[in-house]
Amino acid sequence: MEEKIALYLKEIAAFSADNLEQLEAFRIKFLSKKGLVPALFADFKEVAPEDRKVMGQRLNELKTAVQEKIVSLKDQLDSKVETTGNKQDVTLPSQSTLGSRHPLSIVRNEIIDIFSRIGFTVSEGPEIEDDFHNFTALNFPEEHPARDMQDTFFIEKDPDLALRTHTSSVQVRVMEHSQPPLRTISPGRVFRNEAISARAHCIFHQVEGLYVDEGVSFTDLKQTLLYFARELFSENTKIRFRPSYFPFTEPSAEMDVSCNICGGEGCNICKYTGWVEILGCGMVDPNVLEACNIDSKKYTGFAFGMGIERITMLKYQVNDLRLFFENDVRFLNQFKPAR
Ligand code: PHE
What does the domain layout of the chain look like in residue ranges? Predict the structure, then answer.
């Protein structure tokens, strides 16, 4: 019997189980009614009385060894199930790639930042706009071509509503609710019924600017936009104004910046002129101030509006505007901030 016990103890110490089935087989082998341990207890009757004390201790030792082995192996197997059940190893280095800001958002934020440094607030208005805010208050004559179906997306159910064709509508919304001094920029989406090409899209983004106060002059407009162009492109950027026409500004102008690609030498981006147009601007027409209940005898103002796509194309040398809307990660990844 002593030999058997020694043999079993060795076997128990060496045993390991890969799964609960193996452990159960082990338990049955030793502890079930017909198992090895009860068999030894049955043999105990035959043991000589003088040996019983020692042999009894040995038998109990064996039984405890089996029981302890089962408990410890069960613990091990349970914790193994927990970790394999939860497939994530939180200690592994991250495999997921970080996203990046859309180039249009990067440039919009930069524009907001530049103007907020000189006291401009940010204001917003609705994308579905009524005729008054998009056209009438902005001094568009009844027969103006921009009101035409060809340019404007109207809302079928209500002929008074359309998708705003420019962010100038936000000028009206700001002025009708507050009195000068006003200094605000309005970034947002605008919509025009245009064929989609490398240079045009039916949805694009603008930033509007408006400054109304006593004594605001064209000089203020020029100096503000010069500051803006130098902050956005580079210190050496030059600007020039060309006379233009908008119903809501008088006088009106288009502003060009010296081409930031060739520095004014001439390249295909600036069509070998050294200049690229980036915005429309002018002095707010007194009719617009009056339509918004602002005293045009007391106050003057300037306004400007720029396309974010166009500026982003220039700044990052993107040659097709459609890339901004395709969400191809190979394109977007290039705008990750350097780390
Ligand atoms: N709203 C004009 C456009 O969309 C831009 C503009 C804004 C011009 C403000 C003058 C003043 O083209």
Answer: 2-83, 103-335
Angle (deg, nearest 10), helices 103-116 and 218-232 = 130
User: Ligand 1, closest atom to CA 306?
Assistant: 5
pTM of the model: 0.72
Helix, strand and coil content of the chain, in percent to the nearest 5, comes to 45, 20, 35
pLDDT in tens, 62-96: 889 889 999 888 888 887 766 666 667 778 887 77
* Res 19: pLDDT: 87
**Which of 289, 271, 108 is closest to 210 using CA atoms?**
289
**Strand partners for 176:** none
Q: Looking at domain 103-335, does it have CATH number 3.40.1170.20? A: no
The rounded distance, in Å, linking the Cα atoms of 193 and 191 is 7
Mean pLDDT, the chain, as a whole number?
Answer: 91
Q: What is the pLDDT of residue 85?
A: 61
Residue 216 clears pLDDT 90, i.e. is over it? yes
Which stretches within 15-51 are classed as H helix? Answer: 20-31, 36-43
The helix/strand/coil state of 198 is coil
DSSP letters along 119-136, please?
T-EE----SEEEHHHHTG
Question: Measured in angstroms, how far is the CA atom of residue 303 from the centroid of ligand 1?
Answer: 8
Place of tokens 């004559």: 141
Rounded to whole angstroms, the Cα distance separating 243 from 256 reads 11
Both structure tokens of 42: 């049955």
Instruction: Assess contact for 237 and 258: CB atoms under 8 A.
Output: yes
pLDDT at 267: 83
* Nearest-atom index, ligand 1, CA of 305: 7
Among 168, 205, 224, 306, say which to mutate for ligand 1: greatest number of ligand atoms within 8 Å of CB.
168
